[in-house]
Amino acid sequence: MALLRKNIWMLFILLFAGSLLFFVTLSYLRWQAVNEEHRTKQENLIRLVSHASHSLFTNQEIILDILGTELTKDPDFPLEVKKQPLLDHLLTLNPAIVGFGLARPDGKLTFISSNLDLGSLPNLLQQPESRESFLLALKSSRMVLGRTYYMEAAGEWLIPIRKAIRDKQGHTLGVMTAGLRINGASRLFNSALHMGEFNRVTLIRGQDAYPQLHSSEAADMQLDYEKAVGQGVLKRAFYSMELETGQSIEQIKAQEIIAPFRVRLADWTSVGVARFDRKYNLWVVSEIKLKKIINEFFDAFGIYFLVFVLGQIIIYKLFKWIATAEHLRREGLIFQACHDAVTLLPNRTYLSMNKDKWLNSGDGEPFSVLFVDMDHFKSVNDSFGHEFGDEVLRELAKRLQASAPENATIIRQGGDEFLILSHETNDRCVLLLARNIIDRLSKPYQIEGINFTLGASIGIAKYPLHGADLDSLLRASDIAMYEAKKHKNSARIFADEMQTDYLKKLVVEQELRKGLDNDELFMMYQPQINHQGHLYGVEALIRWQNEELGFVPPDKFISIAEASGLMPRLGEFILRRSLNEMKQVQEDMGLEFHVSVNISVRQFMQANFMALLLDAVDESGLSRVFISLEITESLFIEDLDYILPLLNQIHDLGIQISMDDFGTGYSSLSMLRALPVDELKIDKSFVDNILNDDAARKMIQNIIAIGKNYEMAILAEGVETQAQADLLTQFGCDRFQGYLYSRPLTVENLRAYLKI
Ligand code: C2E
Ligand code: CA
Ligand code: CA
Q1: At residue 545, what are phi and psi to the nearest 5 degrees?
Q2: Which residue of 170, 317, 344, 583 pairs with 622 in a disulfide if CB–CB is 3.0 to 4.6 A?
Q3: 118 Cβ contact partners less than 8 Å away, ≥ 6 residues apart
Q4: Strand partners for 540
């Protein structure tokens, strides 16, 4: 069970780890995809832009070349400074061009388009903004781009382009110059190059890293064009490109490779793609802020994360629910195993499992075991059914809980036996506690409208005084309980004498076993007299003379025989011996009289009792009508559903049933009606007191009246005096037995007795 519970959480952790891995992988792939997407977009953009700018510049170069060649042929060149109508015409054809000018190699502009102010024409070689590119143009065979700058004469930001015009011998005739408009409706690049607000496209000069053209939403000309890209940034960008492409920066430039890069700038990280235009010595660069990519990633990630977290919560709840259910089921099972289903009190299993708590806690801290046993509970069960019995048990449990101390443990030991483990060890206090419990348990019960009372006996054993382990403690308390049972509703603390009694019983048991083998047992017969003074019958009484123990009275060893399983053997001996001997006597003397045999409860409850009885009767040859069986009320503690049919069967055979010790036990007078009883034996204790005790006399009168009412014969036993006999006769007693007539006699003495 614990394994399953552990496994559930193992499974959960596995599932969690699995989904975490899935989540991380998915997120990573998403991150890759977002990056990839932007890179591809930028690569495509750069391919387009670099191509467009290249062809644009090539076009301009061709125009400059044609124009320059044309104008240097003008006879006024290079001496006259003038506005040129041809240039004006070309200006209208190329709205992206701010103005044209043809400069002499010394930097002085000669021919200009008429939109430029003749008065404020700069010398291109002397003007700082143009000097460098002008010198470059002089040296170069290609068109050269100047730094983007604000040209006062045109009142515009522009990219200067210059192309040296040479004659056939290669002498430089002049430099054809134009300004490319980068702002306004008719700017060089007819639409914004960048993809959106998040993106910036820049043309950067190869030689000095000055931006040539910016395409972005937020353009600040001053800031954008007056500062070159820092050397550090450049270095890092190149390094990044080399890393991404696996090529050196020279190769990247030479092969015009589209190269991705990533650079940390002062306050943002730029993720971009660049391509070098070799011809015009230009980097074409597209950039996106890393933050933009991250944000885009987080849009998707947020949803993944939410799904992941929600999923985990749901799975966790599910597992928690399963684990809780499993836990409850387990607890339920443990509870079931350790508790009695009827009273819900802990049971023996619980005790065995928890005994260490009591025995070893606090180095053997003393405690007491109270063994509570109900008297005659079984008859309640038998009379009213098991469900009723369960109800009574629940009530018992309730009363025990109410009377036991808070920290005591109450255990249903089984049947009507309970154990109370209490920390109380002082003799007086434990006995007081036991007294309280007995008082409460013996208060009247009213269950399902039925009123009755029950008795309780308690045996007490103390730890460690009376036993170091549970078994010896239970045995000691059991012994004490049996001692208590001898007195009604009482409690006893275990004492060594009880143990001695117990051991004595063991000796008796052993000796009895041997005695049966050695023929130490024999029967005596006590005559029973009818009211006319004639012999009615005899009661067979067992006797035992043992070498070790001497004479042992039957009421000492019969109970031991019952408890030790010797009763079947002993009972059979009694039955056969009595019937056989009496048949012999009757035959020898030509007499007929009744033979009454005592049948103990265990003997009667034996499965084969009926068969044995019939066999013994047949064997003896005694007539059934002369045989009676003495049973006691304690028989009715047993299962009535079994006893009653058996008694009826015996009675139907013609064998008589005599109710021994009547009035001392449990059976109620009303119960008598249902029983096939032929004879009631008034107990000796009543007869003893008939002369001096009103209650005893009343009891005898009652018994006689009821017996007569049910047409039963009444026999008084233990009649010792004539006065007793007279009074009993007066009350209507039919038969008498006692020392007044005869003591129990051996067979020989009986023969002698009968001869008289
Ligand atoms: P019980 O069946 O009530 O037997 C009557 C007892 O009273 C006998 O004692 C008998 O000797 C004694 N008794 C008879 N008349 C007088 C009298 O006038 N005065 C006095 N003081 N006693 C008298 P016993 O033989 O010692 O038997 C005691 C009990 O042992 C019996 O009580 C019976 O319950 C049991 N018992 C004896 N023999 C047998 C037997 O063979 N089988 C079974 N199952 N139980 C037996
Ligand atoms: Ca008897
Ligand atoms: Ca008796």
Answers
A1: -115, 115
A2: 583
A3: 81, 83, 112
A4: 525, 597
Helix (H, G, I), strand (E, B) or coil at 493: strand
Alpha carbon 658 to its chain's center: 62
Largest CA distance in the chain: 194
Show the tokens assigned to 516.
């049966």
Amino acid 489 reads N
Q: Inform me whether the pLDDT recorded for 96 exceeds 80.
A: yes
Residue ID of nearest Cα to ligand 1 atom 28:
555
Would you state the pLDDT for residue 680? 94
Residue 621 has pLDDT above 90, yes or no: yes
From the CB of 567, is ligand 1 less than 6 Å away? no
Where does residue 242 rank: exposed (0-12), middle (13-18), buried (19+ CB within 10 A)?
Answer: middle
How far apart (Å, rounded) are the C-alpha atoms in residues 454 and 456?
Answer: 7
Dihedral angle over CA of 24, 26, 28, 33, nearest 10? -170
What are the structure tokens assigned to 322, written together?
């399963």
- Look at the block and give the residue holding tokens 């012994």: 479
Residue 572 has pLDDT above 80, yes or no: yes
Residue 47, phi then psi, degrees to nearest 5: -60, -50
The enclosing H or E element of 536 equals strand 535-546
Q: Are strands 199-205 and 211-215 parallel, antiparallel or unpaired?
A: antiparallel
pLDDT for res 277: 95
Please say if the pLDDT value at position 638 is more than 80. Answer: no
Tokens of 593: 């009289």
**How would residue 540 be classed by pLDDT, with cut points 50, 70 and 90?**
very high
Q: Does ligand 1 have an atom closer than 6 angstroms to the CB of 554?
A: yes
472-485 pLDDT, tens digit each: 999 999 999 988 98
Q: Is the pLDDT of residue 744 over 90?
A: yes
Dist CA 708 CA 27 (whole Å):
103
Does the pLDDT of residue 704 top 90, yes or no? yes
**C-alpha 540 – ligand 1 centre gap (Å):** 9
Residue nearest to atom 34 of ligand 1 (CA): 555
Closest by Cα among 130, 141, 129, 132 to 177 = 130
Q: What is the pLDDT of residue 147?
A: 86
Q: How far apart are the first and last CA of the chain?
A: 84
Which pTM value belongs to this model?
0.50
Enumerate domains of the chain plus CATH numbers: 191-290 (3.30.450.20), 348-494 (3.30.70.270), 506-755 (3.20.20.450)
- Is the beta carbon of 707 within 6 A of some atom in ligand 1? no
The 10 Å Cβ neighbour count of residue 250 is 9
Pocket test for ligand 1, best of 525, 539, 541 (most atoms within 8 A of CB): 541
CA distance 229 to 204: 8
Rg from Cα positions in the chain: 63
If you measure from the C-alpha of residue 539 to the centroid of ligand 1, how many angstroms do you get, rounded to a whole number? 9
Quick: pLDDT tens for 301-322: 999 999 999 999 999 999 899 8
Distance 541 CA to ligand 1 centre (A): 6
Ligand 2: centre distance to CA 539 (Å): 7
Residues composing the chain: 756
Establish whether residue 601 lines the binding site of ligand 1, counting it when its CB lies within 6 angstroms of any ligand atom. Answer: no
Atom of ligand 1 nearest to the CA of 630: 2
Question: From CA 525, how far away is CA 596, in angstroms rounded?
Answer: 9
- The one-letter code for the residue type at 400 is L
574 within ligand 1 shell (Cβ under 6 A)? yes
Which residue has a Cα nearest atom 31 of ligand 1? 555
- Each residue of 393-429: pLDDT tens digit? 999 999 999 999 888 999 998 888 999 999 988 999 9
What is the token pair recorded at 472?
A: 């010896």
Q: DSSP letter at 183?
A: S
